[in-house]
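Weekly structure sync - notes
Attendees: PM, LS, DV (DV joined late)
Agenda: review two folding runs queued last week.

Item 1: First target. Sequence and structure tokens pasted below for the record.
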Amino acid sequence: MTGPRWVPAAGLALAGALLGWVLFFGLPTWYGERPRPPGTPASPVPAAQGRRIKARLFYVAASGSKLTSVEQDVPYGEGTIEQAKAILMAQIAPPSPPLASAIPPGTALRALFVTQDGEAFVDFNAAFMTAHPGGSLNELLTVYTVVQALTTNLPLVSAVQLLVDGKEVDTLAGHVDLRRPLANDPGWVE
């Protein structure tokens, strides 16, 4: 056998790359489709359910002094930021009884970003502060609902800083210092 020795290795590498591409990206969308016979009406396409993941969401425990976690399905988000948004949208949605939310009614997520250091900056609308019932315990439960939801579910998020209407705030209701990112604190969860 004459010729360069690298030719068989290159052929194997090319075949491996092609197989890897097919396994990673899947087969082309036309694979497996069959044409409809002429005159046959198209069958209705069911609405896409969308991909979902399991996430731990946090609600006020029955004792009223801590949080309890509940596993729920939330929409899948591509990448850390999109997944964080999906988790927070599920977290701020009004829960079904008997669950009670520590998030003030009318709260909406305005923006979210995550630094390379794993600090998430979460910007809520003014209702997050103005609709808050006050009190140190309520404020702690509200803050740690958000902190725990992100740091528990997203390994790349190590701490959370809360913003209101795009601005840093000292506190929500005068008790919890929000001038720096807060880390996961399992002491607030039963």
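Item 2: Second target, run right after the first with the same settings.
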Amino acid sequence: MNAYLRADGRKGIRNITLVCYLVECAHHVARKIVDKCDDDSVHLIGFSGCYPNDYALTQLSQLIQHPNVGAVVLVSLGCEGFNREALIEVAIKAKRPIETIVIQQSGGTLLATSLGIEAVKKVQAATPIIKVTLPLNELVVGTICGGSDGTSGISANPAVGFCFDLLLKDNATCIFEETGELIGCEQIMAERAVTVELGQAIERAVHKAENYYRVMGYGSFAPGNAEGGLTTQEEKSMGAYSKSGNSPISGLIKPGDIPPSSGLYLMDVVPDGDPLFGFPNISDNAEIVEMIASGAHIILFTTGRGSVVGSAISPVIKVCANPETYRNMSGDMDVNAGKILEENISISTVGDEIYQQVIAVKNGQQTKSEQLGHQEFILTYKQFVPTGPSCLPTR
């Protein structure tokens, strides 16, 4: 038995209790609650903004009912614009035990913290523990690349692509991102789409990203990428694209969309409409959160330059592209894809190693970031319109 059966019928590979703040003014109290609980299964998430935003509500709504989540404690200041009642209704409908702490009604920091600790114990006690089997055809895996360098596109990324193809043969669901780092690859992705209409939607999404970055005056090609040996946006895009493997693309989703069936999905993380909120991907963890909001049980994170992050809610498997980086940061890396470059190991061999890591983590093995206590989380403002019918497969 490798999974937790939720009352709404979904299955998770972890049993997380979320402490979720609804405005930056409640962040400190929420963090105090988590710290004083001293329990690695209690994770901190939240939204710092004060005025309401449909995107933030959608993301938190999906996260508190994620299958890896067993229970929730909301921490509210009391006068923020966030619709906490809507989150409570989501949790009740998903049959997740939930408690709410309102700081202004609880007597301030010390009393609210004390009440929050008791609330965590209460919802944990109310969380049923029913262990079941999670077959691969019910698993959702996302992938992201961060801190890319000249080795990323020739080792870690294609190895993850090979792993994706293996998972898709098992009828798993795989999500790759992101349109802003796939500029120049829209035509070859369109050719892999299962329908002509989906191919056209993919091309429109990439063109939207290109326009967004042009208006903002800043693309996804960072100085660190150049220092690591990448030369152009197109070169970086081809490396990022190789994470998707060779399987047909089943659909195009936006953050918080749950894939309706197994298959390979591209996530469009660039906001719709006129640019309003600045750079759309302010950190790798923002995109990790979005894939988790779309149901990802596990995230595959490829890096050449190096990264130490993990995530709240879903475990992160870090795949290191650069052998020198691996030697320098092996304590944070789960897979050394640099063997492809130094030891003449095949992409398929490392891809199978990643596949086996996915199975092990699904079955309860902790990733390096979990062992180290990494639970990074970030959620900002964005704007999206609903996904059109041409973007998703019919049931």
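Discussion on item 2: DSSP finds 15 helices and 14 strands in the chain.
Action: LS to circulate a short write-up before next sync.
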